[in-house]
Amino acid sequence: MHEVRRRPAKSDVSMDTHAGELTLKPYHRHHHDHRDLQPPTSVKASDALPLPLYLTNGLFFGIFFSVAYFLLHRWREKIRNSTPLHIITFPEIAGVVCLAASFIYLLGFFGIGVVQSFISRGSQDSWDVEEDNNVMIKKNGGGCTPAESLACTLAPVSRERVVAPTIQEPFLSGDDEEVIKGVVSGTIPSYSLESKIGDCKRAAAIRREALQRMTGRSMEGLPLEGFDYESILGQCCEMPVGFVQIPVGIAGPLLLNGTEYMVPIATTEGCLVASTNRGCKAIYASGGASSMLLKDAMTRAPVVRFGTAKRAAELKFFVEDPANFDTLSVAFNRSSRFGRLQNIKCAVAGKNLYMRFSCSTGDAMGMNMVSKGVQNVLDYLQTDFPDMDIIGISGNFCSDKKPAAVNWIEGRGKSVVCEAIIKEEVVQKVLKTNIDTLVELNMLKNLAGSAMAGALGGFNAHASNIVTAVYIATGQDPAQNVESSHCITMMEAVNDGKDLHISVTMPSIEVGTVGGGTQLASQSACLNLLGVKGASKESPGSNSRLLAAIVAGSVLAGELSLMSAIAAGQLVKSHMKYNRSSKDVSKIAS
């Protein structure tokens, strides 16, 4: 094993140990230190003048308030003398410029720190973090501010190997050794590293090294560099130690409703992208597919309990009474600009009542939005039904991330039907089969076969394959693949048996173009490729509805191609060709 020469530690935080207490101390990075191999940090507001920080802040504070007083005094005199305000003298112009400059400086210096403090506070609140007296951030002179600590970089160093050989992380320094040991020993909670250190990437690196030492297993192969860990703080993932790479392929163009779309598919299954692409080709050659949105409503169903079944039934009648709908809507709709209550359906089970709220949610998938609205309605109902005991905001009558007949029948999220007529010559030349064989296979496999299996919403060949792959690529919740993959595929011969009509009906596609994973860089790029990135300002909700239609169109292409491969007897052959590694597994294992 080659010896690794240790570089002088240069990190944002140095460590002091005394009386068993760990203290995180800011480290000031001098501009003349040529040993720093990391690129220089970005220019900050505090670099505006070559003065000590407290003098720079005092100067700009003085400029801001003195100029503001000067301008207000001058404008008051103009109003008294009836002088037009738009007539500005040179001193007033200079005052406006100085006011703007000082405001920009103060906003740049203090604004980032305030935002970071809120993020840190929110992270601690969400996990009920206790104050750890063993670790504290010292605010002595020359240290990094919260805003500066996010931009600080760490020099490459080597580390001691404790349990098992580990990979040398280039962004960990020798001063992180005490923090790592604290995490391993339990004196420093792993979940609090981001809030206590102030650098999300460095926190992930420390947590990763501590994990390797505690488990004695290397995490080589799981990348850490090249990801924006600040973007997931408090919203996407807690206690990160890296990220998983999933290749993204492109199927298309998918011609849907007269528009072409290149569909991103994130998968590790060979043949999936190629097969979906072949289905897109067949649809395109036949004139394209069309889709219709049948329903758009996210649901949440709380469960409440009463002393008697009679009282539960009374609340059911009250909630379902059309005369009370407007009142309940007012309580529900005040939770969001986009959440609008559509209906409430109830089910009684003894003394328990399940109320299934349905509402539109704009371009968001909407689970949080509808939950807030439901809570408002429950608070309102509590006044008229004080004996109502709220058992849970979700009683599984929604039903989220579980196969359920209520979603299959009533729908959840976007209910979409997509269809296409595939020409006979396309079936023969592109899909390598014939119409009669496809129709018969669909009846015996997707319909009768699924019925024999007792399927619930699974009357299709592999809708979940496409749904999951598109969901991962576009930042959706992959777990909602359960109900979003509910699909029935229908095929029949039309035009005197010369053409094939194929359709997919999907009653519960749950997608959004804002919130959650959609804001991450990679997923946002895939949404942008489809033209549905972010919220639609012109027509709120149109982006998420279009995404649902694209999902259904992609499923249509995938169903058409896979069923054709099975009908032509090509399934095994194609998977052996495209879904088998050419590498020698025995050599890899050794």
UniProtKB/TrEMBL annotation:
Please verify whether the record's keywords include NADP.
yes
* InterPro entries linked to this entry: HMG_CoA_Rdtase (IPR002202), HMG_CoA_Rdtase_cat_sf (IPR023074), HMG_CoA_Rdtase_CS (IPR023076), HMG_CoA_Rdtase_eu_arc (IPR004554), HMG_CoA_Rdtase_N (IPR023282), HMG_CoA_Rdtase_NAD(P)-bd_sf (IPR009023), HMG_CoA_Rdtase_sub-bd_dom_sf (IPR009029)
Pathway-wise, it operates in:
Metabolic intermediate biosynthesis; (R)-mevalonate biosynthesis; (R)-mevalonate from acetyl-CoA: step 3/3
Subcellular localization:
Endoplasmic reticulum membrane; Mitochondrion membrane; Plastid membrane
GO molecular function term, any single one: hydroxymethylglutaryl-CoA reductase (NADPH) activity
Recorded hits in PROSITE patterns, A to Z, give: HMG_COA_REDUCTASE_1 (PS00066), HMG_COA_REDUCTASE_2 (PS00318), HMG_COA_REDUCTASE_3 (PS01192), HMG_COA_REDUCTASE_4 (PS50065)
SUPFAM superfamilies attached to this UniProt entry: NAD-binding domain of HMG-CoA reductase, Substrate-binding domain of HMG-CoA reductase
Q: How does it sit in the membrane?
A: Multi-pass membrane protein
Q: What is its EC number?
A: 1.1.1.34
Q: What is its main location?
A: endoplasmic reticulum
One Pfam family per UniProt: HMG-CoA_red
Q: Which GO terms describe its biological process?
A: coenzyme A metabolic process; isoprenoid biosynthetic process; sterol biosynthetic process
Give yes or no: UniProt keyword Mitochondrion: yes
Which family does this protein fall into? Belongs to the HMG-CoA reductase family.
> What name does the UniProt record give this protein?
3-hydroxy-3-methylglutaryl coenzyme A reductase
Source organism: Populus alba x Populus x berolinensis
